[in-house]
Amino acid sequence: xxxxxxxxQSSDSAARDQTSSSAExxxxxxxVNDMQTVPIPARRVVSTFDSVSAPERxxxxxxxxxxxxxAVIDGFGLxxxxxxxxxxxxxxxxxxxxxxxxxxxxxxxxxxxxTFAPERSRPGVLMRxxxxxxxVPAAGTHVKISIDGVPLETVQIGSSEVYDKVxxxxxxxxxxxxxxxxxxxxxxxxxxxxxxxxxxxxVVDGRRxxxxxxxxxxxxxxxxxxxxxxxxxxxxxxxxIMKAAYNLLLLNPKKKASVPGMGVLFSKIADQFxxxxxxxxxxxxxxxESTIRNFIADQGFPExxxxxxxxxxxxxxxxxxxxQHKLEFAEQLMSDFPDMKFILIGDDGQKDPITYATIAHxxxxxxxxxxxxxxxxxxxxxxxxxxxxxPVVPMPITDAPVFTGSTGSNLMKTMxxxxxxxxxxxxxx
Length: 429
Description:
Elements: H1 11-35, E1 40-44, H2 63-89, E2 93-98, E3 101-103, E4 107-117, H3 129-133, E5 136-137, E6 142-147, E7 150-155, E8 173-174, E9 177-178, E10 184-190, E11 196-203, E12 210-216, E13 223-227, H4 241-249, H5 262-272, E14 278-285, H6 289-298, E15 306-309, H7 322-336, E16 341-347, H8 352-362, E17 367-373, H9 377-380, H10 382-387, E18 402-405, H11 408-423
Parallel strand pairs: 1-7, 3-12, 13-14, 13-16, 14-15, 16-17, 17-18
Antiparallel strand pairs: 1-10, 2-4, 3-4, 4-5, 4-10, 6-7, 6-9, 6-11, 7-8, 11-12
């Protein structure tokens, strides 16, 4: 076969090609480096802070209920404006309270709150419930956010709440996000992250950057845990109004007591399912987030995101009920992790049996087990304790197996053998 002659390049041409190849390599290296600092696109989501289910919409309520709720909403708005003006008079200015976020490898859910505070105040500091409950929301605050040093580029469209004036600047991309009338920000950041714990930084004018953890959950994680907090892992006596108020507002946070045996139960579950994320779902307000977070760390419970409740009645035209709040957040988690199956842990003091049975009914096959801690008569009320009775909260019929017990040890004896059995099987089947 004849060999086709190959034309020889001149020395100038070869030099030009070598220079071109070198420039291309440098361009590729620069492009890779630039990718690390490309802003992360983020968008505001229709969240539990600024949406409401149809049955709870104020226009669907009776006339007397509508009038009452409007009065409460207007009164809260007046208090917020007054307290904000008073804070400014004392030269307070906005700070960020960052909350633990979560997400998949494709997107992350970030939540924080802006409040007015003195110059020397620090976010996340452990304090009694009463001062925390008096936090003044800093509405409309500009917050710059970054994940592992990479900034977020946000897109906010229109108004997030009925009672906010429409900000026409919000339909433009920017390097900051704007908190709502309660001071909250709930964003979804669209960026592929490696599974593990990442760092989210928040900055407002005049303050240093503050950080929180972001738990990125690996795709295909088979099992997750959703747990209540009050009287499930932490003793609060929620059914007793007076005891619950004292524990929430006045008790030293360092003296919060753990429910006997629950720490060991959670450790056993974490050992059985090492990749399982733990989500702590509570009707407690975001104001006491630092108390609960420090309690979880101090008592040795697996760390994870806290999903609490907003006590500002304006975004949803009223404060959501405990059942409504838990159902909405559980539905959100079911949607965020469609391939994950869950273990639900709660107690019978705040209608958790009904709530969890409803979740199991709406998502058949996705609830591996339900654990319900049974409260003692003393934990319900003094009158029930003296009478030796405990209000009975029957567990509705559900396809998911239900385990009950008064302590973590009781639950461990019955539930762990079952979880070990299914742990040896294929969860995803």
